[in-house]
Amino acid sequence: MTEKKGTGWFRRADPAAFEQSDAHLQKTLGVKEMLALGVGTIVSTAIFTLPGIVAANHAGAAVTLSFVVAAIVSGLTAFAYAEFASALPFAGSVYSWANVVFGEVFGWIAGWALLAEYFIAVAFVASGWSANFKQFLSNFDLALPKALNGSFAAGNGGVIDLFSLLAVLIVATLLWKGTNSTAKVENTLVVLKVLVILIFIFVGMTAIHPANYSHFIPAHKAGTTFGGWQGISAGASQIFLAYIGFDSIAANSAEAKNPQKTMPRGIIGSLIIATVLFVSVSLVMVGMFHYTQYANNAAPAAWALEHSGHPWVSNLLSVVALAGMFTAIIGMMLAGSRLIYAFGRDGLLPKFLGDVNGKGLPNNALLVLTVIAVLVGSVFSFNELAGLISAGTLIAFMMVSLGVYALRPREGKDLPVPGFKMPFYPVLPALGFLGALYIFWSLDIEARLYAGGWFILGLIVYAIYGSRHSKLNK
Question: Where are the domains of the chain?
């Protein structure tokens, strides 16, 4: 990798070096595959769990507004993502982009933030899959022994969440074989999942009680993040864990066919589809039962159908949802492994992480992601995971929004002209940054503290190892 500008930690990468390094990755993903990857990742465990969690803990029946707020801020950032992915289709997404336009240390900060997201997100989605599977088995009076029924962090006498572990291992095995076969499985599962979401919406509409929408925005409880605008914005901040799906598309742009067209269509198209589904499901769910009944319920959609007199549909939803949730684990693990690969490729983490096998697959990075995700799932409970995911996503959103100001002047000069440009420049990038910043400060203090601790650890790792082994700084 050659130096572009700047000195020391602030040297900027030569995009030609990234292009050369990623040349061995197989370009097998088209618009259809990117849409499936995006929708499959965004509309993941979140659509069957978050409406209930956010309604009970933060927004009440106004959970729908939380999804809308999150979608608006995400939509602004999606335009920036689309321009970057079209101009710089490299593995690592925001990490690689910030490396080119800002310098290596900024790329490291963005990538390090996203790395935490993928570790946590894989564990969270697998935990949600496990919760829904156990809900399904309970309909037949089947249950695992307590020791295998949850992580020791959950405090319910569990030692390990066996089903969560199995979900991660199944997806890791599938990805080990390659992206082409995985994409075919992803496409099929996404179609099934969207169908079952539509079934939930139409069946759930028959069980809506309008009284549940009264006091749509509950009064704010002083000293908490429940109710009022505070509750809506706190709910939106938690919902951002779903929209990390944008990055799961961008992280795989090096494996896209015709990325100048494929990436913008995949990113923006998946956002539109996902937002419509999220808003519809949350509106139906809080209409079926009062939001207080979803407290501490990790499988609210299946529970709502079962308790509204539709056990058969509940079982159908559980079966297809269980299969469909694998799409999110696939997306998270695919993107996370490519990010770790990019770190190894550039020398910021041990070189073996940037190695690929004979089929051009970064399976060393995939193995490390699998192990760490399993460990994270053992240390944190389901609700803790839900609250911790969004911080890194928002940091990446802020950086990519500001990055448009550094990218645009170089397009058509030392960087390619993208197939898509963010509209209403320079206003929208600023709005995207401010929106993400506002949501970040709406996070729970615990999530911000964890993010700060992870950020400090990242700078230490970069100072001790990354800066000394970086190919750019050599």
Answer: 8-469
Mean pLDDT per 10-residue interval, the chain, length 474 residues: 52 76 71 80 75 90 91 86 86 83 87 83 80 77 73 64 85 78 72 85 92 90 86 83 71 76 85 90 93 83 86 79 76 84 89 83 88 78 62 82 93 87 92 88 78 86 89 72
Nearest Cα neighbor of 217 from 229, 207, 205 is 229
Per CATH, which fold does 8-469 belong to?
Answer: Amino acid/polyamine transporter I (1.20.1740)
Residue whose pair of structure tokens reads 């999530």 in the numeric block: 447
Structure tokens at 430: 């600023």
Instruction: Count other Cβ atoms within 10 Å, centred on residue 237.
Output: 30
Distance of alpha carbon 251 from alpha carbon 268, whole angstroms: 15
The reply to whether the predicted model has a pTM over 0.70 is: yes
Report the alpha-carbon distance of residue 330 to residue 38 in Å, rounded: 11
